[in-house]
Protein 1
Amino acid sequence: MCAINTFPAPGPKADLEEGTVLSPRFGADGLITCVTTEATTGELLMVAHMNAEALARTVQTGEAWYWSRSRQELWHKGATSGQVQTVVEMLVDCDQDAIWLKVKVAGDGGCCHTGRQSCFYRKIEVTHGETRLVVA
Amino acid sequence: MCAINTFPAPGPKADLEEGTVLSPRFGADGLITCVTTEATTGELLMVAHMNAEALARTVQTGEAWYWSRSRQELWHKGATSGQVQTVVEMLVDCDQDAIWLKVKVAGDGGCCHTGRQSCFYRKIEVTHGETRLVVA
């Protein structure tokens, strides 16, 4: 298990799409997009990013780890807030450039640093081609 | 409406998080992440990217437009497949670097280029620290 944070390099398209090997396609910035939903309700909680180490730690520990782009550091979600995310299911998309975590959230069950349950608390309303954000 | 694809530059954190102005934070590559779910079931269909023009066209037309990173071109989802995505609701996250589209899909209701309904058709199973992809 020592090399678990070294994922195999992505192979041909057929392997990527139909194979059984997780070979995540990290971007030029070394990151892969992660979508996190609440395991029971399906609510979209957040969109974040993982580098190889964050993904490996998530696999190893069963808790969500991300790469904080603003702080430029590895981020064990909930380590300070108590809102630890326990992974219930983990999926990958067709071309392996996105991860989907279904989680149970500890603490107060929240996710967003603004105090909301989900980071997606505003709708984009469109009126005569003009956009306006409205709290959902 | 002529300048709808020119979104205002992101302002201070308080405006980004609590304001009513959509000021999307496109990355260095000019793209913002978009999560697309089925409006009724909530199923996660795909994760894709939008540049300012794709986002503007989505707002203007009520149908999902993305930026295809592989083809490096604007992508009206469903234009060739018939799987056009009509936007039912559109949300933005706290720091405005991710968009969430809730859509109804035309045609056969599918989304993935492999023929599946959703791009997320494989679970990541972990056994003794080793990962394996299994069709969900």
Note: Chain B has one domain: 13-135.
Protein 2
Amino acid sequence: MGECSPVQPSGVEINLQTGEMLEPDRIVVRRASDMRGYYADADALDQLIRERGDPIHYEVFEKPVPETPGNLMYCISKLHPGLVGDEFFMTKGHYHQIRETAELYLCLRGQGLMLMKTEKGECVAEAMARGRLVYVPPSWAHRSVNTGAEPLVSFCVYPAEAGHNYGDIEDQGFPKRVLRVKGEPQLV
Amino acid sequence: MGECSPVQPSGVEINLQTGEMLEPDRIVVRRASDMRGYYADADALDQLIRERGDPIHYEVFEKPVPETPGNLMYCISKLHPGLVGDEFFMTKGHYHQIRETAELYLCLRGQGLMLMKTEKGECVAEAMARGRLVYVPPSWAHRSVNTGAEPLVSFCVYPAEAGHNYGDIEDQGFPKRVLRVKGEPQLV
């Protein structure tokens, strides 16, 4: 679908219990080995990759639309449960390339946190659970963290022109991490 | 929340079975009397208003965000079931003021159709049912029609600057109507 061909109306099936999208056109897969550099305990990540065969960390299921202003990109984000040392599985996290664009997460399944930060150093966490909508305002970097025992699955929407900037998070990380402390998730 | 105060991250609860939004900040209510001029059978609408005390036709539940580019407006749309003569209950329908903006409907409950049209006269209907996502592309006017026995409830997202243009539909209508023919919905 190029920028010159007008977008046609379309319908897609999403299972609202499991979050499964029927026949996605594109699946982005991040494995444990794609997460090197993100967790505090690099040795624990290496061990996980070695012992568990580099398992899928998270997946994004999409029906792409033209990446032009006025369109809305939507996807299903599925973050598997687990720990790297004492740190809960998380997504890489990103700003948008066009910073001044928001993103909506409507959580369909699982338990977790949406970690958000600004360039000024503000850091906020919002709870994610089935039926919870989290509004990530323009200019806030965002990362999902799965603190539960099942996949954390959300329906996500953002302006189609937004783009992703992963580099800044890869370099700077987030001011806080979500660790398991005495069996409970804790922001430290 | 003014345009100068930065938007903060926020969370909202939405019941994914019923579509109920917890503590909406704004509720738009359209009653049967607000729908004068929209249905083929004006006498049937007048009779319905007279006999049933001008019932609520549809409601929109919102947590407003600044209406500026980059933000995303989201709401729950709830269209009650019923007939005006042989015509199924529907929303007024609208273009966006900024035409080149899309809208997403994720249906949570009920049965119906999303009727869409362009200025060139194209007209398309997409089925709405629980778990069905309908993509309304930029420049397409859109109207929900409830063909079922329970409320048609959808989670909707659109670019916050889009605005609503109801006048063009009030003047021109849609090329097609959804009528009950021999007990079944039919596009005529």
Note: The first strand of chain A starts at residue 10 and ends at 13.
